Amino acid sequence: MSTESLYSSVEIELIVEDSLLNIRALELTKDKLVAVSSIADVYSFDLNSNFLSKDRFYPDSLNVRALALVADTVFTLSIGSPAYLYKNSELVYHETDSAVFYDSMDFWNSKEGIALGDPIDGCLSILITRDGGNTWHKTPCASLPKTIKGEAAFAASDTNISIVGNNAWIASGGVASRVLFSDDKGLSWEVFDTPIVQGTPTTGIYSIDFYDEHNGYAIGGDYTQPKLNSNTKIKSTDGGRSWRTVNQIGGPGYRSCVQYVPGRRAKDLVAVGFEGIDYSANGGLDWIKLSKTGFYTIRFLNDSIAFAAGKGRLAKLIFD
Questions:
Q1: 157: closest CA among 33, 259, 251?
Q2: How far apart are CA 175 and CA 197, in angstroms?
């Protein structure tokens, strides 16, 4: 794809189609796609041979919405109480507090990773590993910003966390929707307000992505009123310290995932939700709808191929 070309269409090639399927977490390497369903079926798709396999690492059906793929190691994290975090088929962390609800996970590198959950005792639940996921430790509330009453996070697309270098950004939502920032791999945190729609349990940021250490974009809205598009899209050009609404009453309404297109200088973005696929070629200022086919989450392989998942489907997307 040339640096001047724009998407005008998307071709959707189904990998799995099943009306009972529900996938909110997928990850890619250059050779492999891994996706986990809400009942903990793990799908592995070889990008070279197109061979698809399905496994279950768990004795029971767990509601799993958080996934990380580090080389060939698959990390999965269930949402409710008790919460179970697996490294492949090995249980490496569990938590039984009745308020437990985990939303997302990611890794800085092969050794250091992070998982995010809803608040307990006045702060978001943040797990950190420094040994390749063999052990996980919960960050004490004294080391984290205090949450606002009604502030939590959404387990909608496994994209509440964005990582660039040593930096991590975490998006909260609900009655208050803010961005937490760490520039030292989770040792210390700051928190910044955002202008996205918020104020009720179903509003706020559902997805955040940073292209580099400066340029970030977040999207959300209210999934119970998906047509409403006022203040559902915000961007930052100063590393998440300040945010502004863009296309305040235009473009897509509620969307569950937004991702920068790689290699496009923070200009091209794709957003997905259960109402379709949208594309922006100017940093999220203006959007066009490419498809009405619904997905919950998306990851890019390169600047023209992505993989997306949602209710009833796992698919390869080819943008042109």
A1: 259
A2: 9
Mean pLDDT, 10 residues at a time, the chain of 320 residues? 70 96 97 94 96 86 94 95 95 96 98 98 98 98 98 98 98 98 98 98 98 98 96 98 92 96 97 97 96 98 98 97
Which homologous superfamily is 10-319 in?
YVTN repeat-like/Quinoprotein amine dehydrogenase (2.130.10.10)
Predicted pLDDT of residue 5: 56
Q: Which of 251, 250, 252, 271 is nearest to 260 (CA)?
A: 271
Q: Taking the chain, what is the end-to-end CA distance rounded to the nearest angstrom? A: 9
d(CA 64, CA 76): 7
Confidence (pLDDT) at 3: 42
What is the pTM for the complete model shown? 0.96
Distances (CA, A) of 73 to 78, 104, 109, 190: 17, 17, 12, 31
What is the structure's pLDDT at 51? 97
Nearest-Å Rg of the Cα atoms of the chain is 18
CA gap 30, 176 in Å, rounded: 37
The distance of Cα 296 from the centroid of its chain, to the nearest Å, equals: 9
Write phi, then psi, for 264 (nearest 5 degrees): -115, 20
